Amino acid sequence: MPPKKGLSASDKRDRMLEIFHDSADVFVIKDVEKLSIKKGIISQAVKDVLQSLIDDDLVHCEKIGISNYYWAFPSEASVKIETEVKKYETELANTKRRRKEMEVAITQHKAANPSTERRAEALSALNALKERMAKVQSELAAYRESDSETVEAMRDAAAGAKCAANRWLDNTYTLLSWCKKRFVGHEIELAKFFAENGLDEKTDYIE
Predict the structure, then answer these.
(1) Less crowded by CB within 10 Å, the N or C end of the chain?
(2) Do the Cβ atoms of 69 and 44 come closer than 8 Å?
């Protein structure tokens, strides 16, 4: 035979609340524990169940002297239930009203924006433009985040390369001048040789 199943938390609350409603009396904790055990609630759970009822304002607690007194009258429970029912009825009415307003708004929107092929193409083009714009903005942000020191170093390197190129060109012209003086009568051969290696009358310094 399977073991007897214990009471659920909800069952414990309901049974303890019956203790107060059936008697309409005021109790101390010992009375609540004694009557709860008779209702099938184990003694170790009494205080937790009682506290949950107090937290939900279903049972009242008042300290007088050194003792706490507990009570809950049936009339209070009915008033509380009626108040909650009215609250939920109001919320339901407001929800129905908002739903009706949304249905009207959706109908109006569909009427003002019919789903045509042209509109679908326009929306597709718009989405493509948004994606392109996001990509361009991302690239722009990457350029903005470029390291200024790196850019400056690149500029310095370019300037140094230009100076070196002009210096080597100057050295080459000096060498050509020396060769012409050293090998008089071979100017044509010298010019051809240097032209084949990238130096002719059009070669100029880098500005």
Answers:
(1) N
(2) no
Chain segment 58-99, per-residue pLDDT in tens = 888 998 888 899 988 877 766 676 777 778 888 888 888 888
CA distance 58 to 56: 5
Q: How far apart are CA 77 and CA 58, in angstroms?
A: 7
Q: For residues 159 and 206, is the Cβ–Cβ distance under 8 A?
A: no
Token output for 138? 């991302």
**What letter does residue 109 receive in the DSSP assignment?**
H
pTM value? 0.38
CB 27 within 8 A of CB 61: no
The total number of residues shown for the chain amounts to 207
User: Strand ranges (DSSP E) for 3-147?
Assistant: 60-64, 67-71
Burial class (CB in 10 A: 0-12, 13-18, 19+), 16: buried
Among the listed residues 71, 76, 68, the one whose alpha carbon sits nearest the alpha carbon of residue 24: 71
Spatial distance between the Cα atoms of 50 and 47, rounded to a whole number of angstroms: 5
Closest residue by Cα to residue 36 from 25, 47, 28, 46: 46
Dihedral sign (CA 98, 104, 106, 108): negative
